[in-house]
Design goal:
710 residues, Rossmann fold, Dihydrodipicolinate Reductase, domain 2, eight-stranded mixed sheet, 31 strands
Length: 710
């Protein structure tokens, strides 16, 4: 549990307090508010002109400085100067959420004298700004941060999504904003200022700092987004009129579907009005009926948000993200780590990644690395004496229209049984009433659900419930994710469990700890990334992020074909040379026009138009070996050639031998590289089980399946 102090108890402070009453990770231990008597607390909490919420709590005033709610003691301060507060005196409060608007710089927030402060407004200095579902993965342990404004928390998730998927050419917006406590009910004598006029009688043009914050949150949108604001006489819920031009032509229905799939942008399909969105927790609710397509690539999107309740929910999400990040960074046990949960007599849903390579003729397993990597988590849960474990995994790429013989787990049950001392029982009916009934009979402790991708809902999941999702949630009371290789997907089995108890296993913990050696590099070791593989498009995001984090990048494999033949990729390499990393390119290779024909050695700049490099050259291997000696950690993602073909596997086999002999700390980024490496004896520091997941984690600092725990 993480202890939190709340500075300010107005509209935002009250909303945050109420939402934290039953929170699983954060607990309010103290509040600082001036001109407030504890005897009025019950009335203040129970009565609200705007929000209607569950009032099922037991409040008791202990004395003039503290009260209890549901048995938890909370201290009440009344200090105007944060420097006079002693937050740490009470249960060692680590985080202060400042809702006053009076502490909006680093120097001001330092007066709180706690480890971490979250400002509930845009900063007045260059303090870092973070918004969940926009850039929270960029958080690296900063002590004082801003959660920006309510408008920014609503519009930036939409802009960030559109920029990432389609690229934004330009955008402008008007936020039609509900009145706030700073507005006057009647005119005052400062007539040179519009904000001094009566909000009851007027629509008041107002400034917004959202454009500046958007640039800080999404740097690629700098100069592309401009906005203004109108204050209107309603007491809560605002709407943004966003006009955006994309670089692609997309039908608006497709745009809506893609936004909905994100899981953090809601699409309202009913004809609702502002008050219908009171006390909603999602910050970005796009009104489908009120939005429209203006031209082939221009759109008007109308976005609702509860500027009090949903903003407060976002502040809580950011604080929780920071707390969990800092737990992991400080080598403490993450609150959602498997060892923090009691599994005795529990019904466990365990997601693993057993998507193994196999021979389709006799169903022999070519590499059981992913199975073996998950056993520690399974054994740990079994030792806790659960009522049952239902293991879930996909296998291959079935169409999702029902059972497909080729991809059934029944072919592998004998092999899988060899890993366990008790019977592993296959649930042949998948997610169904029959399976639910079978589980409830409790005849076994260990089950394997039939291939989860036989259900189309698995890969098409968009956050909404249906019969399959509801059945899935009835099959267990606690969810454990140890499927790191799938955590970059927002699939149903990864993010569809609605229960409160969600844990991750030993494999996920190991993967994250290892990849954080690259992302954080707290020991300041020199890191070289060797990036191979077939397609440059798959590596763009990885190369961009790596160039900011590691000391050197060696680019090889099929990427060189793209760079030599396409100015787009050549220019991209030149662009990232301006970042931290020194960029090395493969200088020669074995090329041919036909993969099944022995190749000829060419220097990279002399590659014939109709030829492609299928393996690295000897000159480049010698150079790469010399480069390796200059670094401490080697991250290898992507083989140097087409290793499935003996004609073009020599370069990768040679590199493998060189790395084994190097004595360096070697990290292999999963996928085909892991399969290749695991066929040989090696002494590598870590081999990841997730190719795409490891790339996404290094590129983005987070994964869809990780955000689910936050």
């Amino acid at each position: 549990m993480v202890y939190v102090g709340l500075n300010g108890f107005g509209r935002i402070g009250k909303s945050i307090f109420l939402q934290l009453l039953n929170h699983k990770t954060l607990k309010i231990k103290a509040i600082n508010v001036t001109k407030f008597e504890l005897e009025n607390l019950a009335s203040y909490l129970e009565n609200d002109s705007t929000h209607h919420y569950n009032k099922n709590w037991i409040l008791k005033i202990i004395d003039e400085t503290k009260f209890s709610i549901n048995g938890e003691t909370i201290h009440m301060f009344s200090q105007r100067d944060a420097g006079q507060l002693n937050w740490k005196k009470h249960d060692n409060i680590e985080y202060v959420i400042d809702c006053t608007g009076a502490y909006l710089t680093q120097d001001a927030c330092k007066k709180h004298n706690v480890e971490y402060v979250v400002m509930c407004a845009p900063p007045k200095d260059n303090s870092p700004q973070f918004v969940v579902n926009v850039n929270e993965e960029k958080y690296r342990g900063e002590n004082i941060v801003s959660n920006a404004s309510c408008t920014t928390n609503s519009i930036s998730p939409v802009l960030g999504f559109l920029e990432k998927k389609y690229k934004i050419v330009k955008a402008n917006f008007t936020t039609i904003h509900a009145t706030t406590a700073s507005q006057n009910t009647i005119d005052t004598n400062h007539f040179n200022n519009r904000t001094s006029r009566s909000i009851i009688n007027n629509i008041i043009p107002h400034s917004t700092g959202a454009s500046k914050s958007i640039k800080a949150l999404i740097p690629s949108l700098g100069g592309k987004v401009k906005g203004t604001s109108l204050r209107v006489p309603v007491n809560n819920v605002s709407i943004i009129d966003l006009n955006v031009t994309l670089s692609e032509n997309v039908k608006i229905d497709e745009l809506m579907d893609e936004m909905e799939k994100s899981g953090y942008i809601l699409i309202n399909k009913r004809k609702l009005v502002s008050s219908d969105f009171n006390t909603t927790t999602m910050p970005s609710i796009v009104d489908k009926d009120a939005s429209m397509q203006l031209t082939d690539n221009e759109y008007k999107l109308m976005i609702w948000y509860d500027n009090e309740w949903s903003y407060s929910a976002q502040v809580i999400r950011l604080t929780e993200y920071m707390a969990k990040y800092n737990y992991a960074t400080n080598n403490q046990v993450h609150p959602n780590f498997i060892t923090n949960f009691d599994f005795q007599n529990r019904e466990v849903i365990l997601r693993v990644d057993w998507n193994i390579p196999f021979n389709k003729t006799d169903y022999s397993i070519n590499d059981d690395f992913r199975i073996v990597s998950s056993l520690k988590t399974i054994e740990y849960i079994l030792e806790q004496n659960p009522k049952r474990i239902m293991i879930i995994s996909h296998l291959g790429r079935p169409k999702g229209n029902g059972y497909e013989e080729e991809y059934s787990w029944k072919h592998f049950m004998k092999h899988l049984q060899s890993y366990f001392n008790e019977q592993l029982h296959l649930l042949e009916n998948g997610i169904s009433i029959e399976t639910l009934n079978e589980l409830q009979e409790n005849k076994h402790r260990l089950y394997l659900l039939e291939n989860i991708r036989f259900h189309g809902e698995e890969t098409k999941y968009n956050g909404t419930n249906n019969e399959i999702v509801d059945l899935y949630n009835k099959m267990g009371t606690i969810f454990v994710n140890d499927a790191f290789g799938c955590m970059h997907r927002g699939h149903m089995s990864i993010t569809g469990f609605n229960g409160e108890e969600k844990a991750f296993g030993f494999l996920v913990q190991n993967e994250i700890n290892c990849l954080e050696l690259i992302n954080k590099n707290i020991n300041h070791e020199k890191i070289l990334a060797i990036v191979g593989g077939g397609k440059m498009d798959d590596k763009i995001a990885l190369l961009g992020e790596l160039s900011k984090k590691v000391d050197g990048i060696y680019v090889s494999g099929g990427n060189i074909n793209s760079i030599m033949k396409n100015d787009k990729y050549k220019n991209y390499i030149e662009e990232i040379k301006n970042n931290k990393s020194k960029i090395y390119l493969m200088k020669d290779g074995l090329a041919s026009s036909d993969l099944n024909v022995p190749g000829t050695y060419y220097k990279s700049e002399n590659l014939p138009k109709n030829n492609y490099f299928f393996d690295i050259g000897m000159q480049s291997i010698i150079e790469l070996n010399n480069i390796i000696q200059e670094y401490d950690i080697i991250f290898w993602n992507g083989t140097l050639g087409v290793v499935e073909n003996d004609l073009y596997s020599y370069g990768s086999r040679t590199l493998l031998e060189l790395l084994i002999k190097s004595g360096k700390k070697i990290i292999v980024g999963g996928g085909d590289t892991a399969c290749f490496v695991n066929k040989n004896n090696h002494n590598f520091y870590y081999v990841s089980t997730g190719g795409g997941a490891s790339i996404d984690y290094i590129s983005n600092g987070s994964l869809a399946g990780m955000k689910y725990f936050l």
